[in-house]
Amino acid sequence: xxxxxxxxxxxxxxxxxxxxxxxxxxxxxxxxxxxxxxxxxxxxxxxxxxxxxxxxxxxxxxxxxxxxxxxxxxxxxxxxxxxxxxxxxxxxxxxxxxxxxxxxxxxxxxxxxxxxxxxxxxxxxxxxxxxxxxxxxxxxxxxxxxxxxxxxxxxxxxxxxxxxxxxxxxxxxxxxxxxxxxxxxxxxxxxxxxxxxxxxxxxxxxxxxxxxxxxxxxxxxxxxxxxxxxxxxxxxxxxxxxxxxxxxxxxxxxxxxxxxxxxxxxxxxxxxxxxxxxxxxxxxxxxxxxxxxxxxxxxxxxxxxxxxxxxxxxxxxxxxxxxxxx
Length: 326
What we know:
The structure is a single chain. The protein has a single domain (2-324), classed as monomeric porin ompg (Porin, Beta Barrel). 12% of the residues lie in helices and 52% in strands. The chain is built from 5 helices and 14 strands. It has a 12-stranded antiparallel β-barrel with strand order 1-2-3-6-7-8-9-10-11-12-13-14. The radius of gyration is 21 Å and the shape is globular. It starts with a helix and ends with a strand.
């Protein structure tokens, strides 16, 4: 009897894990809701990985997330070492079968999140070069670029950026296995006071393509950002237009459980110093737990290849709530 029950349990579990329908029965949230973490890209308008599929008509999704990041970049030209925290809230609404709007607010601020020790341990565990971090004291807030007379110290608690973004998306193709959408965004950042006081107005356009098959989904975004070149650190030459390429993969491990992987390539945002003129590369590992009307997301972002122009490590936790206005 016990053996029969065990056999039945194994068969039932196998059927659930290999079912072609369970992955798409619940609301499909698409890629992780996680923003760029490289220092320049995270404080400007940067295309974000989005699904090629829209929501169902008159559906609404509300979201909120928090990111704690440790930024370390050290070369002969500059030294950058500080913590960045990001709060993001907003919502998207599917107006009809073609059009979707997404309105969000993002606050970046310098605050001590005590990640230095964890970052060093993480790098040591996986054999990642410390790049001089182990020779510096913990919990610093310092940006030094001597060539351009930039020397900022002790800016803890300062606002780095405070921005509202409006994104509009058009559903171009909506097939069972293929989705293609076109989007554009406008962004206004205004910091009232402090070291990073100033305003920016920027725009993006992007193409989003998704492929889904059973428990697997692929996401891709190609985007262009048009930047406000009169930004903070005007001594640096900011690029007017930059390119972003982002790829994502979602695997439905079991009902309510998803694994996410992302690779982000961002064109360098400034012409000098040299390392910041080169592309920034980010790898994201994430997990999503879905509930009847909501989802909880956690993710880790790690820089790749060029260790001197990107965030060392970032942790994000987010919540998304889905409702229908039918």
